Amino acid sequence: MIDPKPSTSPAISRESVRVATFNVLSPLLADWHLRKKVVAEHLRATDPDIVALQEVDAGADRDQGISDLLGPGWHVAWHSRTTPDGVGLTLASRWPIDKIHEHDLGVTARAAVYPWSAVVVAEIRAPQPLGTLHVVHHKPVFQFDYEHERELQAVEAARFIEKVLGDQEEHVVLVGDFDAGPDSSSIRFWTGRQSLAGMSVSYHDAWEALRPNDPGHTFTPDNPLVARGDMFSAAGRRIDYVMVRGGSFGPTLEVQSVDLIGVKPRDEVQASDHYGVVAELTTPVRAPGAWG
Description:
TDP2-like; endonuclease activity
């Protein structure tokens, strides 16, 4: 964990939170020594309060690496396992993290091969009236033909979230690189369009809330790093998400804005093969299910 700088300012009230997710592409690939500066510029311009990062350097100097990307003063919740070459995932917050819960998603033999297949739930102490935010960093398997595993992983992760929450009614924000498009069964499960394994949940997709007619592809061969990479032959997809948990009457936080991160190169350097997503979420004027 990176300790924040001491502050003498009075306690502040926050009714909104900026949440982002960005797969920055392994530092072992595509000229990281050039891309690192560009990734940092995009992230700092986005100015998130909470950000999930995938494919970052999770080696001995990992906290310094996050400071290099985001600046000082961040609290960090790492996925505990990495690839053999030290690439992993992290969730960073400007606000303190009380507890970190992790659950392995090796739901089949072929899914268990990939150490990043896990879900992390961080209890983040945001200012009031937001209060405690349960931020979920979900990472299923990536292969096109592994949707069966993504289904199992979605159900496993959703059950784990409910176990962590218990009877608490705090906000839950679900983020990450899900490696599945909005019409896939695993995303349809997350967004309440279908049940799986006798279970149903309701998470509301920030992009869909404000831009339902915009494909918003986050992984596309229009990106030069995708065109250079090993998945260049498939059509563009939207596979990176910010979602808000809801109940019978809708999400507990409203989406005020949503945008992509890292689309345009800087100095002819593309940040990543993914575009990230950032959403501004705010507390509603009244709880869902209450008449105005």
